[in-house]
Amino acid sequence: MDQEKPVFTYPNPDLNVTHDNKARWNQPNTRRHGYHNLYRIPRYSLSFRAANVLHLETNIEASIGMRPDVKKMTETIHFSGMAVLKGQELIFERYADDFHHTHPHTIMSISKMTLNLICGELISQGLLDPNKKVKEYLPEIGTGYAEATIQQVLNMDLSNSYSEDYSDPFASSFIHETTLGWRLPTKKIPEINQKTFLSSIEQIGSSLENKTGYADYKSANTDVLAWVAETVSKRSLREWMINIVEAIGIEGNWHMHTDRDGFPVVDGGVNLCARDLARFGQLFCRFGMGADGNQIGNKKYIENTRKNPGPKNLPPKDFYNYSNQTMTNGTWLGHGGYGGQFMLANPDTGISVSFFSVLQNKDALDLDYSVDIVKMMEKIAEEY
Predict the structure, then answer these.
(1) From CA 64, how far away is CA 117, in angstroms rounded?
(2) Which has the closest alpha carbon to 74: 355, 288, 368, 348?
(3) Where are the alpha helices (H) located in 21-92, listed in sequence order?
(4) DSSP string covering 288-320
(5) How far apart, in whole angstroms, are the C-alpha atoms of residue 28 and residue 360?
(6) Is it the case that residue 2 has pLDDT exceeding 90?
(7) To the nearest 5 percent, what fractions of the chain are helix, strand and coil?
(8) Considering only CA atoms, which of 244, 236, 347, 245 is closest in space to residue 296?
(9) Above 60 in pLDDT, residue 1?
């Protein structure tokens, strides 16, 4: 018998780490393709659809598209898509030539807003005390979170060894991607599950106190909260996400990445179309009352998120604060995403706005551009 031929393989090119310690999907020249396809690129994922879709009536407000700020932001090479809902009316949408209204786009850290709903519900039920320390719920957690209160974690208001500096290609947030299935493991950085990774984060110095005076943004915080929520509720995160999807009433798919064990990536793993991201905003406009008639989250907690904000964001984003896994200026609630996304919901006017774009510079970061997005969205949410 002939000797068997050897089997040849090669590293998955989308996930292989090359220049600047980034996978191909996150390289500047291929990032737009990556963001438009991140719903299918990572190694592990879940997908959910709602049984009943939140109906939208098309009632386009032409003046929105004529606004100088809207034209400025939707005519850049970065732009992918934008949708504006007023209750159940679609009053504006626009898309780039290489994108469309049913196409999923990564929402990155906007995914974190799911924890406002989950933790708000658990706190209102007395199952979670924001003043207790993380170690009281997770005895196995490492020193990077053990002595932190739940409220510190909710408000991005603690200091530890986890770093999220997008200008540093070796920041913890990029190393974290191996756990999330967003890049291939190496001998130096092997693949471990979320809970092992989170437990490896360490305290630096004598305490976890955030001494910067500003929010100390760490995506790992959200994953710790998700682990706590699953533990105290005795409900899987998968079940929580299904309930959120049903409450939103999405039309397309809720594509969500997981680690190798199936633990959902709540810090930035959701992908949605623009209309469905705006539908997500409507859930906050309704203070958690679901399209399916079930409450998700807690109305009082969402109100308190606006009224009792945590630390301010670093300038030039210091006109809004970080509060309970959301960003707020005291009126609107929202969140940004790495590389050019934002979702904003104004409960006072019932308007929610979604915005997708892909920055193609080295760090996927442009603070002035990010400020322009938020200023545009808050004006639309105020004036229509």
Answers:
(1) 30
(2) 355
(3) 31-36, 62-66, 68-74
(4) TB-TTS-B-S-HHHHHHHHHS--PBPSTTSTTS
(5) 5
(6) no
(7) 35, 15, 50
(8) 244
(9) no
Alpha helices in 112-149 (DSSP H): 113-124, 134-137
Q: Which residues of 121-143 are buried (b: 16+ CB within 10 A; e: fewer)?
A: bbbeeeebebeebbeebbeebbb
Question: 85 has which bridge partners?
Answer: 90, 352
Spell out the residues 6+ positions from residue 142 whose beta carbon is closer than 8 angstroms to its own.
198, 199, 200, 201, 202
Q: Residue 335 half-sphere exposure, CB side, CA atoms within 13 Å? A: 27
**Separation CA 337–CA 106 (nearest Å):** 9
pLDDT tens profile 315-345: 999 999 999 999 999 999 999 999 999 999 9
pLDDT in tens, 109-120: 999 999 999 999
Distance in angstroms (rounded) separating the CA atoms of residues 377 and 371: 10
Q: What is the pLDDT of residues 132-174, one digit of tens each?
A: 999 999 999 999 999 999 999 999 999 999 999 999 999 999 9
